[in-house]
Amino acid sequence: MSTGRVLEFAGDCRLGELARRLMEGVDPCLGMSVVAHCLAFRVLERVGVRVSGLLSPAFTEPSGGSSLASTQTRVLLANGEARVYGEKIFSTNAAYADYLLVFGRTDTGYVLALVPRSEARVEPLELQAYSCSGISRVYMRGSRGRLVAGPGREAYKLLLETLAENRVLVAALAIGLAWTALREAIDWARKRNIFKHQAVSHRIAKAYAELLAAKSLVEKAVEETVKGEIDWATTSAAKLVAVETGRRVLEAALKTMAGYALHKNSRIATLLLHLEALEPAEGTSDIQLEIIARTLEKM
Predict the structure, then answer these.
(1) CATH superfamily of 3-151
(2) Using CA atoms, how far apart are residues 125 and 275, in angstroms rounded to an integer?
(3) What is the reported pTM?
(4) HEC string of 127-162?
(5) 3-state SS class at 86
(6) Which residue of 7, 9, 153, 214 has the fewest C-beta atoms within 10 A of its own C-beta?
């Protein structure tokens, strides 16, 4: 994936414009790289830090998964410099990023540190989905970096809030992947003159209706987030519904195209793989349901 292409598409990471473009359908690897870069970009923006170059959010750890509170990455602060010790995994863009945004802890609280990629050992992961998005394992053994937030609880809160906002971009990417698949299935059905069969036309119509409804929810979540009205339940619902609706749309495309969906000239099987890989991004569906349930309990 071209770094310049990612940065050009991402721009200043304005949620509204990005979500709209992602929902129109983009190359999956480009979309994933943009979503990851903008997550780190918007965290830095909220603390008044601006750097040029591609960013990689380095938050997930082999032992703790996406549980930020259980981070084992240690950060030592001395003479205005951060020294980072730890290991991260599934860090998108890390293979060719300019900087890693690392979440860790000191003896007095959580911190965020900006570490040049050259300071870490980066091993690209051999994944079946988003293999061109530079998703890697990162090793830091005293890596030098810049403290950008913390130490304290505020760094943790900042990251959680930005993750909640960024879920709308993951949801938008899921919608875009599903639209791409549905368009291919429609074109295939038209060319083979099988739209006249209700089993085909009604299946496609149902997928279209569900996808349109999911897109409306994502647009609502984007609108509220852009206004600064962060509703965790809404952003979680948008991500949950977008991914699960996307699955049903891909299933409809597979049933419509049958064995042709697995042909090397079809994108359906690849799109399904990319869509499934969005399940753990910014929290699995189970995590989204837990967030929604906790919000409802407090209403």
Answers:
(1) Butyryl-CoA Dehydrogenase, subunit A, domain 2 (2.40.110.10)
(2) 18
(3) 0.92
(4) CCCCCCCCCEEEEEEEEEEEEEECCCHHHHHHHHHH
(5) strand
(6) 153
| Closest to 75 (Cα-Cα) out of 147, 123, 159 | 147
- The full set of domain ranges for the chain reads 3-151, 156-297
Secondary structure element (H or E) that encloses residue 171, with its range: helix 153-191
pLDDT digits (tens, 9 = 90+) for 137-156: 999 999 999 999 989 999 99
The 10s digit of each residue's pLDDT in 230-263 is: 788 999 999 999 999 999 999 999 988 888 777 8
| Nearest residue to 82 (alpha-carbon basis) of 110, 40, 50 | 110
* C-alpha closest to that of 269 among 283, 278, 282, 258: 258
Question: Quick one: tokens of 240?
Answer: 């949950």
Contact between residue 200 and residue 186 where contact means Cβ atoms under 8 Å apart: no
**Is the sign of the CA dihedral 10, 14, 17, 18 positive or negative?**
positive
* 212 sits in which H/E element: helix 198-226
Helix (H) or strand (E) holding 176: helix 153-191
Taking the C-alpha atoms of residue 74 and residue 65, their distance in angstroms, rounded to an integer, is 16
- Euclidean distance between CA atoms 123 and 271, whole angstroms: 25
